[in-house]
């Protein structure tokens, strides 16, 4: 599903329908309209949820049925089999999928633009009901300015984003390899 669809879904649900919750009005916070960090976070959670579910299902399916049958043969209940044998063996795949889903969310901009990411933030956020922006949006804004200083800032931000994404992917690979070796 294209990420823009998740942005439209987040706009419809979190910004429009649940604006009294995501704006903080229920908690007595004024000056917000539902286009907050909370609504953006919930939208990004919707974006990565299918990835997490599919990766968890595949990791659990990858556990050999002989392991389950051996556990049942030794008298373990279904819950004991899942908790002590299936989940520990599926953990490398689940963690790898989680880290890769977070990596995808870091690079997404389209859902955040629809939910209400600002192009200019002139004060620090004070909580989940504050206005927000995203690093890819800031990079675009900095490269669109004519001053050369902003191009240098944009280049540094691009490097930061690349380093974070490569680090997360590297951690996912190392974690998967270490946990896979431990399980065998």
UniProtKB/TrEMBL annotation:
Name of protein: ABC transporter permease subunit
Family according to the record: Belongs to the binding-protein-dependent transport system permease family.
CDD domains: TM_PBP2 (cd06261)
Organism: Anaerolinea thermolimosa
Keyword Membrane: yes
GO annotation (BP), single: transmembrane transport
ABC transmembrane type-1 domain segment(s): 1-172
UniProt subcellular location: Cell membrane; Membrane
Keywords associated with the record: Membrane, Transmembrane, Transmembrane helix, Transport
Transmembrane regions: 6-29, 36-56, 153-175
A Pfam family the protein falls into: BPD_transp_1
GO cellular component: plasma membrane
Membrane association type: Multi-pass membrane protein
């Amino acid at each position: 599903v294209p990420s823009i669809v998740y942005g439209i879904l987040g706009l419809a649900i979190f910004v429009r329908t649940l604006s009294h919750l995501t704006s903080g009005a229920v908690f007595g916070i004024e000056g917000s309209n539902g286009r907050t960090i909370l609504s953006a976070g919930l939208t990004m959670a919707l974006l990565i949820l299918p990835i997490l579910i599919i990766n968890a299902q595949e990791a659990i399916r990858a556990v050999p049925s002989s392991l389950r049958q051996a556990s049942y043969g030794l008298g373990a209940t279904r819950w004991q089999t899942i908790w002590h044998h299936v989940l520990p063996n599926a953990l490398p795949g689940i963690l790898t999928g989680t880290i890769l889903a977070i990596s995808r969310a870091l690079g997404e901009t389209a859902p955040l633009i629809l939910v209400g990411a600002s192009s200019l933030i002139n004060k620090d956020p004070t909580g989940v009901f504050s206005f927000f922006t995203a690093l890819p949006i800031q990079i675009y804004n900095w490269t669109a300015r004519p001053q050369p200083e902003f191009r240098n800032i944009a280049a540094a931000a691009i490097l930061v984003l690349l380093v974070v994404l490569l680090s997360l992917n590297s951690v996912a690979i190392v974690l998967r390899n270490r946990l896979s070796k431990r399980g065998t």
